[in-house]
Amino acid sequence: MRSMMRAAARRFCRDERGTATIxxxxxxxxxxxxxxxxxxxxYLNIRHAMLERxxxxxxxxLRLATGFVPGHDAIRQSICDRAGIITDCAENxxxxxxxxxxxxxxxxxxxxxCRNADQEARPLRNxxxxxxxxxxxxxxxxxxxxxFPTSGLAAELSKDNEGYAALVATSAFVQEPR
Length: 178
Fold this sequence. Notes:
Layout: H1 2-14, H2 19-64, H3 72-83, H4 89-92, E1 93-100, E2 135-144, H5 152-156, E3 165-174
Antiparallel strand pairs: 1-2, 2-3
Helix pairs in contact: 2-3
């Protein structure tokens, strides 16, 4: 009985049929993982660049708009209009704005106040309109769904219960005198 099992094991080990299939399966899996991570990274970079662009152009407008102090909804809509390709921007973008004394600098808290899809709408943590010559910090947090949520890169992102990940952009400006 043992000799029959040894002989079968030897035949199995010497048989080379199907070895190319094993190599192919391993290599295709690696390439598919790399491709998925590349696509995810590309979309992540595009979203972040567009969020930064929307925030920067809106902050430029805020800085130069003397005599007009827009509210939270107007600023959020302006960022979303300029961000371009970000889908559901108005529903998934949350803003924090704070007046800061440059002589005793106190930053916005380290954790961004992002929208959680499974929670009711919360009041803003902090949104203060600035007066003339005041230093303002504005932080935008965008929640988005990854393209391949279980791929290598997206699996490492911290996500909420609904599968949304966060992108954060911060900008500072001084309100021009009126």
